[in-house]
Design goal:
It is built from 8 helices and 2 strands. By secondary structure, the chain is an all-alpha fold.
Length: about 300
Amino acid sequence: MKLHRKGRAALVLALVAVVGMAFRVSWNALRDIAGAVGADDTAAMLYPFVVDGLMALALIATLVLADRDRTFALRVLGAYTGASLVLNYVHGLVPELHGRTVDWGRLADWDPANWALVLLATSLPVGSIYFGSDLVAKVLHHRPNPIPTATANAEESTEINRKRSTVDLPVSTPGPITPNVVALPRPVAVGFLKSTVPAKPLPQVDPAPFASIERRAVAAESTRPRRATGRVPAVAKSTRPKRTPEQLLAEARQVTADWPDAKVTGEGIRRAIRTSPVNARALRDTILAERATGAAA
């Protein structure tokens, strides 16, 4: 629930009042600490602005920045809040600081603690310069996240309307279609569906003109046998004389004399003596029969 504009303004004014009163309470402590570490009257008067002023600046930066820059501003705010708390605590423990009767540069009786407190008090102004400049630069270069455009919102709205049921749509859907009953001579009721929604007339589309296909005469295929267009060249003619069956058998016996029975095949004889497959198979059978007869004898 968002606060009213007047309520938010009152809340901001209350915060400013609380911060101002807290700054006034911390004023004396930080001023006395600054005087104890060697600051003059003017520097001691300005010292509280260095510490508490940077805290206010870091607080404003956390409200503007985002992501890593906001984390950095929160760390600076926490570090300077802790430092101010420590200095105020030391001011409450050492009564001599109230009347400025403490020795110069002496904030604690134990030397290591005194050295740490003096280092803390003197380093805060330098840290304010560095961290304050960095925070201001980050705020000036900060770019807020872009607001979604109207197109994205329109797409989201369309998607939401698309997922809504038909009951939620502003336009009511047509009622249910009821079947019509036709009375026949016999006591039989025949129902048929008839749409109650009139169909929109469609414009008549003229057919596209097309060109007629012309018939062309095709020459009939001739049934007469074709003659040779020329003489067969002499190179194409076989010059090898025709061999008789006895000559083929003699050549096959000579070629397969040293072949084993497994190698004596019709294809092997055909390639060896260059004859037809029929003659090669006959020669194979003859040679194998002769080998079987010779082995039996």
